[in-house]
Design brief:
Length: 351
């Protein structure tokens, strides 16, 4: 038989927290400082790097109160969360002997319901209590079965998230109300604001967007979770071993760029020549094209896929892979090599 109040409780397993700030040591002790990137656990850094500004996310529920709960929350250094309210009522952690909030001298405590009055709350005045949103999401490209949590007290971040995910949010207009398991991008980005009593300034806030077309989002909203997560067959990319770029260009009456010709030539040499390296040389780095072409074959990536990965990941230009690689900095080239090797390691039977 189920146990009332126990058997009906469900919670998402939390794998970790992602933050928008870090603690620093100063003359007066430890203080928080904001960052313009996501501060992530190690397993997330392995996929997105040390200072990502964008994450691939999915939300596990349609209910905003489960994936983006929003409360007034008051914290104590010794007792943690001591009050949680919605602007009308609250649940407080109190010392039964004094009837006041539990503090460092409290031996036993209990929860008690109270009235939440933000305009008259002294805890808001001393900044112990703030409006908080906890964003709960999946990172489908990071190993693990569970969710990550990101807390923010930013008014502008909360408005941005609600504007997309709430029941009357912009995203739901096109998905028949569905937001769960739709592939989205969670970004931290600069936004110019004009808070009351202050001049205009630029802050970094959360934003949700999609990299796919609106028509694709609408199509995804009608699919099951399994259909969304399965890779889509791409018929618009010609197989590398059947159609060299020159053949397609000649058939269309167009001429490939010099960079495209160079990449095709180097690709053939890497496939057939008895050489150790056919390098791309940039800012004090060398990338072995023999290794790269072999990696592409193992990953089943065409030149277009590789080019898209390089240009989108490192924000560089280039009409061909070799040209884009030459535009990388040394640090970007090292990160690129590391990421490709990590992708190879994750493919069963590739190494």
């Amino acid at each position: 038989m189920p146990i009332e109040g126990v058997s009906d409780i469900r919670r998402y397993p939390r794998l970790g927290k992602i933050r928008l700030g870090m603690k620093k040591e100063g003359q007066k002790g430890t203080y928080p400082t904001a960052t313009n990137y996501f501060v992530c656990p190690e397993e997330v850094k392995k996929v997105y790097g040390d200072k990502p500004t964008e994450l691939d996310v999915m939300f596990p529920s349609e209910k905003l109160e489960l994936i983006a709960p929003q409360w007034y929350k008051c914290y104590s250094y010794t007792q943690g969360l001591i009050c949680k309210g919605d602007g009308k009522t609250c649940m407080r952690k109190i010392d039964p002997e004094t009837g006041d909030f539990a503090n460092k001298d409290t031996i036993q405590w209990e929860f008690a319901e109270g009235i939440c009055e933000p305009p008259h709350c002294p805890m808001i005045g001393n900044k112990q209590c703030r409006k908080m949103m906890s964003l709960i999401f999946l990172l489908p490209d990071v190993p693990g079965l569970g969710v990550y949590q990101l807390d923010t007290s930013s008014f502008y971040s909360t408005v941005n998230i609600n504007s997309q995910l709430a029941d009357d949010g912009f995203l739901r207009y096109f998905t028949n109300g569905r937001i769960s398991f739709i592939p989205l991008k969670l970004s931290v980005m600069p936004q110019e604001v004009n808070p009351p009593g202050a001049g205009r300034k630029t802050v970094h806030v959360l934003s949700i967007r999609a990299d796919v077309k609106l028509s694709e989002i609408i199509a995804l909203s009608g699919k099951t979770i399994a259909q969304v997560l399965l890779p889509t067959l791409k018929d618009d990319e010609p197989p590398d071993d059947l159609y060299p770029d020159e053949v397609l260009a000649e058939a269309e009456g167009t001429e490939p760029t010099q960079a495209e010709k160079d990449w095709e030539r180097l690709s053939r040499e890497a496939d057939t020549a008895d050489i150790d390296k056919t390098p791309v040389e940039g800012e004090s780095f060398v990338i072995d094209l023999t290794w790269l072409k072999d990696a592409q074959k193992r990953l089943k990536w065409g030149d277009e896929t590789m080019l898209t990965f390089i240009t989108s990941q490192y924000k560089v230009g280039g009409k061909a892979v070799a040209e884009a690689l030459n535009n990388l900095t040394k640090e970007q080239a090292e990160d690129f090599t590391r990421r490709i090797n990590e992708k190879l390691e994750k493919q069963p039977g590739l190494l």
